[in-house]
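> example.struct
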């Protein structure tokens, strides 16, 4: 294992110490717990928080900031944060207008967020939950409730965060978050495994000339392992799966997100976007906004995911709003 780390057990906390030291004007933490991250300056509005395992930067804590989230509970590498962490962040960010939890559809996260919500209710804090479940490869159409949350959760953060900044109620922010979640689909593909520091070895093996279509961000099995194909063919297969699950008609508007999983050069991501762009334009679908970069990684995994979010006028307006965190910046579109 080759990594620039110290003791593997210290990986998460030392990473958080580095982030907080680099961005003290934007982020802080709840006294005594580095893994409870909040915005440095909180506002009088509905609060939004997320939580999840480390190893996915900028997901999850990378979206804590202006126009996005107010707090994040940070877990170990690929591990859920604890319910007590979630509760502490909830209390810290609550401005009396309620807290919306937005997190991925994983069993540990669901259990711990639900436990935290029960504890928050006992303290008079109203909470709602919205799950990111955009991975079209992880369950068939009709069983969306079983799907994993991957990079497409960015759209839920972005639209709900913008609406909360505008002063919308908890119920309205939840409505928009649910709409964004229902209108995004993602497909991923991997070329290599990642190494969890405390494990010290690759999480799975894959041949040098192979790719795995539909693999999850923790190395969960995909839907097909095949020989590596040219970029256009890979993008076409991914778009076929997305469009079969969420049909688009001529005149529809979408946003496209091409996400690197940790070890894929940006040049390659733009080649993938080139292919997706051609497919959508041939269908007469309008592309409103494109995001290319790293939005939800898996340590040093080689691969990428492709997300398509179908937009209406409300989602377009909210997606257009400015946002600023140490890991993401957008001016008004």
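> example.seq
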């Amino acid at each position: 294992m080759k990594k620039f780390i110290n003791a593997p057990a210290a990986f998460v906390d030392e990473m958080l110490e580095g982030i907080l030291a680099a961005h003290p004007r934007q982020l802080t933490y709840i006294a005594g717990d580095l893994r409870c991250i909040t915005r440095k300056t909180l506002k009088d509005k509905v609060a939004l928080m997320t939580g999840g395992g480390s190893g996915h930067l900028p997901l999850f804590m990378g979206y804590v900031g202006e126009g996005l989230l107010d707090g994040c509970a940070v877990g170990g590498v690929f591990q859920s944060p604890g319910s007590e962490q979630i509760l502490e962040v909830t209390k810290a960010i609550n401005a009396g207008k309620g807290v919306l939890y937005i997190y991925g559809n994983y069993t540990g996260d669901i259990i711990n967020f639900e436990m935290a919500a029960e504890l928050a209710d006992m303290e008079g804090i109203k909470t709602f939950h919205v799950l990111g479940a955009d991975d079209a490869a992880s369950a068939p159409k009709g069983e969306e409730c079983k799907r994993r949350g991957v990079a497409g959760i960015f759209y839920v953060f972005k639209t709900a965060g913008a609406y909360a900044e505008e002063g919308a109620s908890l119920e309205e922010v939840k409505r928009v978050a649910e709409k964004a979640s229902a209108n995004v689909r993602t497909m991923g593909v991997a070329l290599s495994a990642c190494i969890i520091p405390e494990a010290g070895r690759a999480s799975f093996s894959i041949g040098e000339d192979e790719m795995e279509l539909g693999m999850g961000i923790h190395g969960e099995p995909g839907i097909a392992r095949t020989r590596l194909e040219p970029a256009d063919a890979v993008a076409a297969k991914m778009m076929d799966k997305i469009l079969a699950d969420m049909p688009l008609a001529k005149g529809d508007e979408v946003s496209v997100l091409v996400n690197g999983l940790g070890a894929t050069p940006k040049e390659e991501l733009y080649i993938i976007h080139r292919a997706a762009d051609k497919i959508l334009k041939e269908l007469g679908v309008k592309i409103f906004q494109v995001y290319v970069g790293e939005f939800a990684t898996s340590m040093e995994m080689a691969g990428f995911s492709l997300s398509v979010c179908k937009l209406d006028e409300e989602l377009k307006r909210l997606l257009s709003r400015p946002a600023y965190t140490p890991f993401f910046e957008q001016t008004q579109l």
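> remarks
The chain is about 30% helix and 25% strand.
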